[in-house]
Specification:
With 260 residues, the chain is an alpha+beta fold. Helix 1 crosses helix 5.
């Protein structure tokens, strides 16, 4: 039996015993988006006295940024800093005596930066969540995002893996959606266009059972990033091929019908 036929068999066999009453019955997300800023020091415009030190936990100065760029790097949790053709990556770690501290990391394994526990962030498929309710590796499904066209041209499947957390991400239904290098106000940011950057908008979601979460993590190469971001295997993948958006929705109600 091919993988395609296997999933269709699963769909037909189990769907009789599991039904969802629709998105209106789901808990509602309070959403925001965050991203990885790329800051070019040569293009910053501020006076020397307005520069703020990026310090590590040993009080060593790693770099200096204008206040606007520094605040944004801190807000997003990380940033790239470009100086003289060299790119460095800084991640917020903690506050010591009221001063924010950063670490410098090489981004070879995680080109879009790190979430918690050195887990790689996966653009448009990662969320930050409150660890009290959603541990790293948990998976949520947002029906309204199925079929949404991403900047790469691929269609979203609606699944997100929890790879990060944040000080302002508090509550079971509070999620921060990671959009790679696309800022919240860029016209090419698909999530901003659909309204995920505005807390006033609400989106139904469902937390997946471990059976489906495991499959999603596998396809997204968790805790790393996918080797190929738009995974297609002989046009039979249930996640990335646009022909399987409907199947993806159906499998969610089947394997993920139990809310956690």
């Amino acid at each position: 039996m091919t993988r395609r036929n296997f999933w269709i068999a699963v769909l037909l066999t189990i769907s009789l015993g599991c039904a969802e009453s629709g998105e209106d019955s789901l808990p509602l997300i309070t959403p925001t988006v965050y991203y990885k800023p790329v800051i070019n020091l040569d293009k910053m415009t501020c006076n020397d006295e307005d520069l703020i030190d990026i310090k590590d936990e040993n009080d060593m100065i790693l770099s200096k940024l204008c206040k606007r760029e520094y605040d944004n790097c801190l807000l997003q949790g990380s940033c790239y800093v470009v100086e003289g053709g060299k790119t460095r990556a800084f991640n917020f770690t903690k506050k010591i005596e009221g001063t924010s501290r950063f670490s410098e990391k090489r981004e070879i394994r995680c080109p879009y930066g790190y979430g918690v526990r050195s887990i790689c962030l996966d653009p448009f498929y990662s969320v930050a969540a409150d660890p009290t309710f959603h541990v790293p590796g948990s998976v949520i499904f947002v029906p309204k995002l199925v079929g949404l066209k991403l900047p790469s041209g691929s269609l979203h499947n609606g699944y997100f893996v929890v790879r990060d957390e944040g000080g302002a991400i508090i509550g079971e239904n509070r999620f921060d959606f990671f959009t790679g290098f696309y800022g919240p106000y860029e016209k090419d940011n698909s999530f901003s266009r659909i309204g995920l950057s505005d807390k006033r908008n609400k989106f139904g979601y469902q937390k997946m059972s471990e059976a489906l979460a495991k499959k999603v993590r596998e396809y997204r190469n968790y805790p790393n990033t996918p080797n190929v971001f738009d995974v297609v295997n002989n046009n039979e993948t249930i996640f990335e091929n646009s022909n399987y958006c409907t199947l993806s929705l159906a499998l969610t109600s089947i394997l993920g019908c139990r809310r956690e």
